[in-house]
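To whoever picks this up:

The nightly regression suite flagged Polysaccharide deacetylase family protein as changed. Nothing in the input moved, so I suspect the structure step. Input below, exactly as stored in the fixture:
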Amino acid sequence: MRKRLVCFLFLLSVVVALSGCGVEGAGTPVVEPAVSPVQSPSSEPTSAPVEESRGISPVRSLETPETLETPADPAIDVPSDVPADVPPDTSAFASELVSSAKLSLSLVERYQTAIPHKWGENIPGVRTHLVTQDKVIALTFDACGGKEGSGYDEKLIDYLIKEQIPATLFVNARWLSANPDMFAKLAGNPLFEIENHGTEHRPLSVNGRAAYGIAGTKDVSDAIREVTGNADEIEKLTGRRPLFFRSGTAFYDDIAVDIAHDLGFQLAGYNVLGDAGATFNTEQVYNALTKARSGSIVLAHMNHPEKDTAEGVMKAIPVMQKAGFRFVLLSAYPVE
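Regenerated output under the current build:
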């Protein structure tokens, strides 16, 4: 057991040493208008230029326990002399950590000097609709957490379950942390698929660009952590790695879009603003949803039970079903 612990601590120190950390971000940048034709009424477009991306600070490593002898210059690869008595699952876990660290380092090297030129909700690489002529609609509900709300809209979810309406749930790490039992129930219900709404609910950028007053990720390393931190947690809890990522505020710059793609995620946008950050009243939610067309992706929220999202959804769905629409998971069709 001592040998297992020593080996694992060594591997962990290597990963941490390689992963590094980003520099402090500058002040909150000004928001430029989203490219999407539908945006929250609270957004105030400006024409501020995109800032240059920043590099990352030197890497830091954990202190090495006195009982652990390590080489002076630890290699990136998993050591070839891993003790034979290390359980296979531990060795595989360590290999996965090292592989992830190597990918992160390669992305930092590739993008740390790149300058973004696009910024918004609907820029190339953000997928906004299902590729189909079928009369199907994908309902997606964000659970943001933190000061953006860690509540649970029980009325909404109970209605979807009762009526057997599939939905894709974009869960943020802060909401997950505040609602572990409910998360487990939702993840275990085949009616829903759990997707990634980020670790700290930030716009995804490489220079700290802000949207709706929320500062974006400040550099390449920060963007990587925003995407992978929550994905890792969801995978650990459910056994399934998310397919889709949606940033906090749904804003991205074009470099961050490339980073997310290189990490293996599709970026889930929308073309129907269902509740404008849970600010719409019942009639506004109803009107928004009933304007959806074949292949629409609807964005609404499930973390504000005190708002009118549930009432609007409950009013709209029977009308949409009567018009011949079905509801599907986001992964049921290709998206573009």
